[in-house]
Amino acid sequence: MTDRLVVIGGDASGMTAASLVKKRRPDMEVVALEKGHWTSYSACGIPYLVGGDVDSIDDLVVRTPEEHIRRGVDARVGHEATAIDVDRRHVEVRDLDAASTYELGFDQLVLAMGAVPRRPPLPGFDHERVHGVQTLDDGADLLRHAKEIGVERVAVVGAGYIGLEIAEAFVKRGCRVTVVEREPEVMPATMDPEMGALVHLAMEVEGVDVRVGTAVQGFDGRALQTAAGSVEADLVVLGLGVAPNAKLAGDAGIALGAHDAVGVDIRQRTSHDGVWAAGDCCESLHLVSKRKVHVALGTVANKQGRVVGLNVSGGYATFPGVVGTAVTKLCATEIARTGLSEREASAAGFLYEAVTIESTTRAGYFPGAKPLKVRVLAERGGGRLLGAQIVGEEGAAKRIDVLACALTAGFTVEDVLHLDLSYAPPFAPVWDPVLVAARKAWEAVQANR
Question: What is the pTM assigned to this prediction?
Answer without folding.
Answer: 0.95
